[in-house]
Structures are given as structure tokens and as C-alpha cells.
Amino acid sequence: LQGKLSIGVGNGISIHNSSFSVCLDPKKASNCDYTFVSHAHIDHIHKPNGKSKIIASRETTKLAKERGYDLGDTNEGAHGMDFFDSGHIFGSKAVLVKDSVFYTGDISVRNRGFLKGCRGVKCGTLIMETTYGKPRYVFPNTEQVIADANRFISRCFDSCRPVILTGYPLGKAQLISRLFDSWEPMFLHESVYKMNSAHIELGVKLKDHERFSDSESNEQTLKRSPWILIAPTSSRKSNSIELMRRKYGAAVAAFTGWAMDPSYAHLMNLDAAFPLSDHSDFIELVELAKYCDPSMIYTMHGFAGEFAAHLRSIGFEAEALSESKFQSKLTSYA
Ligand SMILES: [Zn+2]
Fold it and tell me: In whole angstroms, what is the distance from residue 24 CA to residue 297 CA?
């Protein structure tokens, strides 16, 4: 018998039980016995104050540090909690607390490149992310997306046009530099180079592509024949990408689940957008819920309300976790 657990929402999600408390992905330092950092995306890391034991994978610890977040001495495990690769980015974890509450963090069920998908685990309560929890977000299979992107690159190369492939600097950028590494020459934007190097140090097999240099001595070489640059999404609208687009006639493509929106490429001023995501799509989220088969589901991120409604319509108990609504409410169950 597990005894009573309670879930609170505020600074992240906290779970309290008779033997310990744990805070999941808080925005600021927590007072719980443990603090779980699921992965190294900025919206999931915080600056610890030393009062709570930090639990994070060694990959997350290193990647966070590279991004300027020192998590201190982290533990990879703790009694009463089981950890699973969540398949979202390298080192990302999901956690099962006391064989009862499963928190997915950001999760992908698909195998892609060096990442293996996560199918979940049987649990009493499921706390799941629902970034793409709307029926229109059903992604094509990954091989199809890769084939489409390769055709796009090939067409550009045929007309001697360089290609800039963009994605989040941590996660997506490593994945696309791996998936398209048969194209040469491939260069990496500074921020991507830094994250790729950290992955290589941690044992991921990535080619060590050159850092992109737009120096005068390089300019003629870059103008002579096509190349690929992997760059962060955040710099998509920045001058450097626009400048290269004009200077070298480069085509710009993005890799994101939002590419399922037909107007995405146009709105973002892209030549192409490919639906390659580090999250699960709508159908995969439903499958995940079914596989975990919980008696209660809490949804968070993205279309949390709509997805909870869908879960209820197919027979689950489900509710969206919203901070304002749940701030003071504690949900208890046996
Ligand atoms: Zn993430």
C-alpha cells in the first residue's frame, strides 16, 4: 500500500507523500526534499538554492551547465522514484513516483536519429504534456518527413542554392545535423556547434562539422557551391539569417510540429517547413494515455483543456492543470 499522495501546482508541480516531497520542473528553487529537472530546455531549468536535492540525468546536468545553468551536485536517482527516457531530447527523463504518479515532462513516443521513443508506464495518475493535443496535429511518419526534406535540399543543390536548416538549438538541431549528415559541406551556427560538441562529449555519434564562418576569406568559397548550415530557430528572423539569405541566395527551412499549420512557412517567412517534432502528436498522446491506463489524468502545456475534454469523451477522468485554477487546490487520492 502506497499511502496517501497529494499533488500541488504552483512553482512547477509538487508531489507529497508520507516519506518525501518532490517538485517537478519548477521555475524557481523549491523547498521540497527533491527537485526533478526533466531536461535542459530553458523553460524546464532553474537556479537551485541548495535546499532541495536536485535530480537530473548527467546529460541534463551537463547540457544545462553549457547553457549557463549550474544545477550543482545532481543525483540521477532517488528512493521511491523510477526514471524513464522520455525521448524528447538527449538526457530527457520522465518519472514514476511511488509506483503511482507518472509525470511525462516533454515526451516523444517516436524513435528518431539517436533518440528512442517512450511509450509510458502503467500508473494510477498520469500528468502529461499536451503541446500538440489537437486533432490537426497528427505528424506524418518520420521517414516521409526526412524524404521530403532531402528532396527539398536536393532541388536547392541542383540549382546551386545553399540551404539553412533551422530548429531549436538544443535537441532539434542535433537531430537534423544527424539526419541530414550525408550532405556536404555542412556547417553549424555557433550556438548549435556548442550543443553538438556537448553531445559528442557525452557519447552521441555526430559528425564534427565546422563552425560556420562568414569571413571575407570564406565568402568566395561560400558563393561558389551550395552548402548546408544548421542554425537555431530563434535566429530565423534575425539579421544574420536574412543577410545570408540575401548574400548567398540561401533557402531557409524549419523543422517543427507547427509545420502542420498550412500557413506556418508563409507566416514565418520560410521557403519550407517540415513537421519533425520532439513532442508526441495528437494520436500518440491518446495512445500514451491508453497505455498508461490511469484512473486520473492531468494535462499541461499547449492544448491542455481541449485534450482533457477529448480524454473525457473517450472515458478517462481528465482535467487540465492550470496554475491559476489549482494554485491552492490539493488533489488527494489513495
Ligand atoms: Zn522541452
Answer: 16
CA–CA separation, 189 and 210 (whole Å) = 9
- pLDDT at position 330 is 44
pLDDT digits (tens, 9 = 90+) for 44-59: 888 898 999 999 999 9
Strand-pair category, 163-167 with 186-188 = unpaired
Q: Is the peptide bond before 185 cis (omega within 30 degrees of 0)?
A: yes
Rounded distance from Cα 106 to ligand 1 centre (Å): 5
Residue 1, pLDDT score? 41
- Whose cell is 559528442? That residue is 200
If you measure from the C-alpha of residue 329 to the centroid of ligand 1, how many angstroms do you get, rounded to a whole number?
Answer: 26
Cα gap 118→102, rounded to integer Å: 12
| The one-letter amino acid at 276 | L
CA of 92 to the centre of ligand 1 (A): 8
pLDDT at residue 328 tops 80: no
